[in-house]
Amino acid sequence: MGRCAECNEMANHFLYLEDGTYTELCMECFNAWYCKRMGLDYAFYAHPKTITVEGSKFSLMVEVQVSGVTYYAYQGRRDAQLSFSVVLPFSIDGKTAMQILKDKIAVQNREPSRYDDALQESGTIGIMYDDGPLDAAQFIIDGKNYDEQAFLALLREKRGSNLVFRFEPRVPHPDSTWSTYAEHLPTQPMIRYDARYDI
Ligand SMILES: [Zn+2]
Asked: Per-residue pLDDT tens for 144-179?
């Protein structure tokens, strides 16, 4: 893995351009490139490198996609990162996004359970991404790892409850890389809202 052609940070996007050339970019420079391709200005989504919520500091990662911008806040060990995210439309600027993300963390990032190995009344269960075979998963709760058996034991303790769930993207592992052919990427953002129904 080389250095970003734009800013010399470590590159993690390998980008094959339509003119047959190839370049390597970091996440931020890839985001800027992708925004420009879709006629957007990445400066509108400007964000700090870290945010602090009620005394806890989180690192930020941002991922531009065709349907909007995902902002991730994360902290902790590389193999058990506590991870929060918000997926927002392109109409929301980076400053507003930070407030939405901070509010979400403040609500969800409660004190870890006083009891070891017990689920709180509400919280976030991370399912670690792993590109190996789909025969086992690792779970991350309050910054601790649980294998499948340990996770089921946590659920067993909650017999008599409903578990209400909602999937959200988890911050990519710090060593993740992406290979992208520009020809596969759209040149316009996907507009989720259809104005025809504006009555
Ligand atoms: Zn860069």
From this structure: 899 999 999 999 999 999 999 899 999 999 899 999
Ligand 1 centre distance from Cα of residue 28 (Å)? 6
How close is the Cα of 27 to the center of ligand 1, in Å? 7
**Residue 66 counted as domain residue:** yes
Q: For residue 20, what are the domain limits?
A: 13-111+120-190
State the SS3 of the chain.
CCECCCCCCECCEEEECCCCCEEEECHHHHHHHHHHHCCCCHHHHCCCCEEEECCEEEEEEEEEECCEEEEEEEECCCCCCEEEEEEECCCCCHHHHHHHHHHHHHHHCCCCCCCCCCCCCCCCEEECCCCCCCCCCCEEECCEEECHHHHHHHHHCCCCCCCCCCCCCCCCCCCCCEEEEHHHCCCCCCCCCCHHHCC
Q: Is residue 5 part of a domain?
A: no
User: Whole-model pTM?
Assistant: 0.86
Average pLDDT of every residue of the chain: 90
Q: Does residue 198 sit within a domain?
A: no
Total domains in the chain come to 1
| Cα–ligand 1 centroid distance for 32 (angstroms) | 9
